[in-house]
Amino acid sequence: MARVHALKISISGVRGVVGDFLTPQLIESFAKAFGTFAGPGRVNVGRDTRTSGEMLLHAVSAGLLSTGCTPVDLGICPTPSVQIRTKETDAVGGIIITASHNPAQWNALKFVGKNGIFLDEYESRTLVDIYHEGSFRRGADEEIETIRRDPLAIDSHLQKVLDYVDVELIRSKRFKVAFDCCNGAGSLMTPRLLQELGCQLIPLSTEPNGIFPREPEPTPQNLSQLCSTTKLSGADVGFAQDADADRLAIINEYGEAIGEDYTLALAVQFVLSKTPGPVVVNLSTSRAIEDIARQHDCPIYFTKIGESNVIDKILDCGAVVGGEGNGGVMIPAIHPCRDSFIGIALVLQYMAQTGKTLSQLVAEIPRYYMVKKKAALSSDQIFGLMEKLKRQYSGAHIDVTDGIKIFFDDQHGWAHIRPSNTEPILRIMSEAPTLAVAEALNARIFKEAGLPSY
Fold it and tell me: What are phi and psi of 185, to 5 degrees?
């Protein structure tokens, strides 16, 4: 297989393997570009627990200082905490040092506007153009500040979550909760949240040291320890986060991972039952969300993949809930961002309010099966395959908003094929009412695209 260039610059920021393509020099230059883009003023900088984080923090700070910005170190904290803190302070923007669900050797920069929202496509392109041009603002001597520190990001975020839910109701149930923070940024907030909600804690991997005991992506195959712990301990529920704690996976009382799509489905079901309104999700999200919205007679809107695309539509249509099928729950009333903590709190309140177990709540959601595969390919290979599939299915029911989504209406299923925004890979996802059909659709795409054996 051809070697894939391990640096990715996209709407999701810039990411790569540290010391290989992602160097302190490159990071400093991107920080200069952001300082030039945002203008002088406070820039909040937060990071996850990766061991490369502090090195990159210094590179980011140097770049910001040189453009007349004041870097404010929020320390290790979850991605949504940085976004919320950026909006509620007088910051001109924020930079988050995290590769989120990527392996430990990766790191990245994510860029946040003064509204606490990730840069949109136009803003991201402008930032990248500034980087490539290398025409960075140079701060005057009297503008050069020092690095400041702000330890309140997690405190502020935690309070917003607690204010949104019925804390006393949840406390009255004394839920036993197993949780796995992957030694990531959630380690500093998840135990506090669960304690405030009166839960009995069964913690796994809550040392914020950046040594990940599993792959950070909270997919079922990476959660075997949490599944067994949840079952053997008699916990009511298990929660898993990725390294920066914006995504949430859930384990039922039998020790079974319910799938990331059902994280969002539970949240949407609960929110719409209390506050009906528009729903926004991306094109790779389970059809279960569409079914739930229709049950509540609420409109649903689909966007390209990428958190900023979902957020733009949430703000445009005044959605009450939104998210992505990878475990990203967005509650605009708190902040329009993916937030695993509000996901945890909502699920616990849903269980407390109904008196039902997690498996009973999941059983009430329309059942679909999703298969997610990926293939590491060069950009040229990906482009060629996408064009081939578009030609092949040109007369079918398709959506080419983001890659190509093929609707197999006779089987009540679909397949979505698209380049990743965060990794040099092609993603092939399929969904159907049965696992056999979902797997068959996925295998069909692999075969028709001429990819290696399924």
Answer: -65, -25
Output the CA torsion sign for 330, 335, 340, 344.
Answer: negative
The answer to whether 142 touches 112, Cβ cutoff 8 Å, is no
**What is the mean predicted confidence (pLDDT) over 404-422?**
90
Q: How far is CA 239 from the centre of its chain?
A: 15
Tell me the C-alpha distance between 221 and 249, whole Å. Answer: 12
Domain residue limits, the chain: 7-151, 156-363, 369-449
Can you give the pTM of this predicted structure?
Answer: 0.93
Please give the CATH superfamily to which domain 369-449 belongs: Alpha-D-phosphohexomutase, C-terminal domain (3.30.310.50)
What's the rounded Cα separation, in Å, for the pair 93 and 76? 17
7-151 and 156-363: identical CATH topology: yes
Element (H, E) at 286: none
- Token pair of 287, please? 């059809």
Task: Report the alpha-carbon distance of residue 438 to residue 442 in Å, rounded.
Answer: 6
**Class of the CATH domain delimited by 156-363:** alpha beta
Long-range contacts of 56-61 (CB under 8 A, 24+ apart): 56/18, 56/24, 56/27, 56/97, 56/107, 56/109, 57/97, 58/24, 59/24, 59/25, 59/27, 59/28, 59/31, 60/27, 60/28, 60/31, 60/95, 60/97, 60/109, 61/31, 61/147
What amino acid positions are annotated as catalytic residues?
A: 100
Nearest to 305 by CA among 221, 219, 427, 424: 427
List the CATH code of the domain at 7-151: 3.40.120.10
* Rounded CA separation 445/347 (Å): 35
Question: Which of 146-155, 201-210, 381-390, 415-424 shows the lowest per-residue confidence on average (mean pLDDT)?
Answer: 415-424
Which of 65-69, 71-75, 152-156, 322-326 is the least confident region?
322-326
Q: Which residue has the tokens 């490159």?
A: 26
**Contact predicate 302/281, CB 8 Å:** yes
Question: Is the Cβ–Cβ distance between 247 and 338 less than 8 Å?
Answer: yes
Burial of residue 174 (CB within 10 Å: 0-12, 13-18, 19+) is exposed
DSSP line for 177-204: EEEE-TTSGGGGTHHHHHHHTTPEEEEE
- How far is the CA of 238 from the CAs of 10, 226, 229, 267, in angstroms? 33, 7, 9, 16
The candidate with the shortest Cα–Cα distance to 274, out of 327, 320, 314, is: 320
